[in-house]
Design brief:
Strand order of the largest sheet: 4-5-8-11
Number of strands: 15
Number of helices: 4
Order of helices and strands: EEHEEEEEEEEEEEEEHHH
Strand content: 25-35%
Structural class: alpha/beta
Distance between the termini: 39 Å
Helix content: 10-25%
Largest sheet: 4 strands, parallel
Oligomer: single chain
Radius of gyration: 19 Å
């Protein structure tokens, strides 16, 4: 099996009889050994298991049916990727950027890197994975898709958007659970300034 670029050029030759997981493992070894990025590669149908892939550039990759199970993708860039199905189960996605992507479906469970009890989920509402987390171990923040808000700003934002009643109800549910656990709901100005840059 050959790993090719999106334009069809050979990037890495591999034995034809190996599994998707083994191909992914050999690719990761090659990326680390050669200190290269997987930019513009067709990585379709590969399964990465707990791979260490931080700070890599996946720009322009084709990632159809790719599974990143439990991978460390911290700080990696996914710009102009395409995928009909992308698995990000248990991944560390801290400071990972997805921009100008065409992804039909993403399958996720809770990200690694949060202490147990520091993340609450409302599930998928209005096509967004909605969860709250305890920022800096104290402050309630809610995330829906790529948007991060304080409770006050989430209410203000989604109150003004028609058809987002389920999303707003999910935020209220998360706020109730967070209050019960003693999370701080009001954020100081310096924290509000920080989250504008998340």
């Amino acid at each position: 099996m050959t790993i090719r670029t999106v334009s069809g050029e050979v990037f890495l030759e591999m034995p034809a009889s190996i599994s998707s997981r083994e191909r992914a493992r050999l690719l990761v070894e090659h990326l680390h050994r050669e200190e290269v990025n997987p930019k513009n590669l067709d990585l379709s149908q590969l399964t990465f298991d707990s791979s260490h892939l931080p700070n890599l550039n996946f720009d322009g990759c084709k990632l159809d049916a790719v599974m990143f199970h439990g991978c460390n993708l911290q700080g990696s860039m996914f710009h102009q990727i395409t995928s009909h199905s992308l698995g990000l189960h248990g991944c560390n996605l801290s400071n990972t950027f997805f921009t100008q992507t065409q992804i039909r479906s993403v399958h996720m469970s809770m990200p690694l890197g949060f202490p147990q009890g520091d993340i609450l989920t409302a599930g998928t509402l209005d096509c967004y994975d909605v969860y709250a987390y305890r920022y800096k171990g104290e402050y309630f923040l809610v995330r829906a898709g790529c948007r991060v808000f304080s409770l006050k700003n989430a209410r203000r934002h989604w109150n003004d958007v028609e058809g987002r009643e389920d999303l707003l109800d999910g935020v209220e549910f998360l706020a109730k659970l967070a209050k019960r656990r003693g999370w701080k709901m009001e954020l100081p100005d310096d924290i509000l300034w920080e989250i504008d840059r998340i």
